[in-house]
Each structure stands twice: as structure tokens, then as C-alpha cells.
Amino acid sequence: MRFSKLRKLIILILIPIALAVFISGTSSYATGVTPDTDPEEGVENAVTDDENDGFSVGLTLDSNSDETRLAGTLRMFLVITVISLAPSILVMLTSFTRIIVVLHFVRTAVGTQSSPPNNILIGLSLFLTLFIMSPIFVRINEEAIEPLSAQEITQEEAINNAITPLREFMLRQVRQEDLRLFMDIARIDTVDDVSEIPTTVVIPAFIISELRAAFIIGFLIYIPFIIIDMVVSSVLMSMGMMMLPPTTISMPFKILLFVMADGWNLIIGQLVQSFH
């Protein structure tokens, strides 16, 4: 009994080993490579045998995995960089800066501290920016994005085609004094054409020009509301109501003046036309 159990156990162990040896031998025979033969020599022998039989087999192994991996990494890095800089590009290189600053001046001049709220002002500024910049965005799409998607131009050409309309817009709005300031800082004496001015010089000059224009518009908006504050303050002092804050009385009159003069229409209309 013990001998029969031992025999069965040996048979159960030997059967998987035999199957493994049989399968490995069959696969080696099918590929024409024996276990003791170098795989490269086996491939060469197989190609030689096929050529002797009248067949020509060409094997070309060209591995560009490292270059492909590097190109993919650079492309991913470029996409992440553009996405991270997109808010700054939208805010600083468009009409958004001037619009949002002027709208904040309007709210402060009227005297309403939180009306309209910041979300409304930012949303209005964003849609006004899209309205003003729509021809430039259409041009960028036609000259940069669509040709790049169709693989008609390279990434470098697409970037140049995209930045050119923005440069033209910024150069139309920038003041010569601000541009000269940053050219002096960058030690650029004279240029034959504006295309020779680096973009790194145009962008900060454009930003401070936009801030200056916004502050000038804000000052003009403040003038009628300051007059109302002065009149109300003088009336209260003449009536002996020195403890009553003038802003509490003047704010309804300022809102009334703003509504009767159709202030939003006038301010938004002149603000949009200032870019043309």
C-alpha cells in the first residue's frame, strides 16, 4: 500500500515536468531555435533558410523609443505651461485689465461697497474682453490653431502666428513713453521696425499703459460724484448735522444721477470704443 501511494505521488510529480519539457521543445522546434542556440543566430539561420528557399525576408529594427518619449514629455510640458499661464495671458495681454479697473472705480465712486458684487464685475469684464478681442481670437484660430491641428505648420510656427496678433493689439494700445522705458531697461537703443522689439518688452509696457488709461477714466468718473458729496456735505454742515455721515445721504443721490444719466451705457460704450 505504501509502495503504491509512493508510485502515484512520483507519477503526479513527473507528469507536469514532462509536459513542460515537451512544450518547451515544441516551441523551440516551431521557431527554429534550439535551447542551446543563441536567439540572434537562430533568426539569422531562419532568414538564410528562407532566402535559400526563394523567399526574401527583410527585418528592419529601428527603435526611436527614447526620442518619442522625449518628444512626448516636451509636448506635455508645453501644454501644462500654456494651461497654467492661460489666466495670466487672458488678464494681462488683453483688454481685461482696463475694463476691470474702471468697473471697480465706478462701484467705488457711486459708493456701493458690494453692489455689483465682484463676481458680476469679473463676469462682465470677461465677456466684454471676449467681445473686444474676438477678431484677434478668430485670427489666432485661423492662423495658428487650425494649421497646427492639420499638421501644416510646426509648433514654433504656431506660437509665432499666435503671438503676432496679440503683439499688434498691444502695440496699438501702448504708450511710446512706456515702451521707451522698458527698452531703456533692456538696453535696446534703436530699432528699425517694431517687429524687432522683444515681446518681453512689449508686455510690461502694455500693462502699465492699460493701468494709466484705466486711472484716467476712473478720475473722470469720480468728478460728478465728488461734486454731489461736496454739495451734500455743505448742506449738512449748514444745517448743523455734523454727526450725520455725508455718504449716507449722498449715496441715494449718486445712484439717482447714475441711473438718470444711463451710466452703464455711457461707461461701457466709451470703454469699448477706447480700444478702437
Helix content: over 70%
Q: Characterize the main sheet.
A: none
Mean pLDDT: 77
Give start-end ranges of low-pLDDT stretches.
24-63
Q: What is the ordering of alpha helices and beta strands?
A: HHHHHHHHHH
Radius of gyration: 38 Å
Distance between the termini: 106 Å
Large-scale geometry = elongated
Compute the number of helices: 10
Classify the beta-strand content into a percent band.
under 5%
What is the total tally of β strands? 0
Based on secondary structure, the structural category is mainly alpha
Characterise this structure.
Helix content is 78%, strand content 0%. It contains ten helices and no strands. It has helices at 2-31, 39-52, 65-92, 96-110, 118-149, 155-173, 176-185, 199-238, 246-260, 263-273. Residues 24-63 have low confidence and may be disordered. Helix 5 (118-149) packs across helix 6, helix 7 crosses helix 8 and helix 8 packs across helix 9 (246-260). With 276 residues, it is mostly helical. The chain has a domain at 94-273. The protein is elongated and about 75 Å long.
Brief overview:
Helix content is 78%, strand content 0%. The chain is built from ten helices and no strands. The termini are far apart.
Keywords:
0% strand, 276 residues, elongated
List the helices and strands and how they pair.
Layout: H1 2-31, H2 39-52, H3 65-92, H4 96-110, H5 118-149, H6 155-173, H7 176-185, H8 199-238, H9 246-260, H10 263-273
Helix pairs in contact: 4-5, 4-8, 5-6, 6-8, 7-8, 8-9
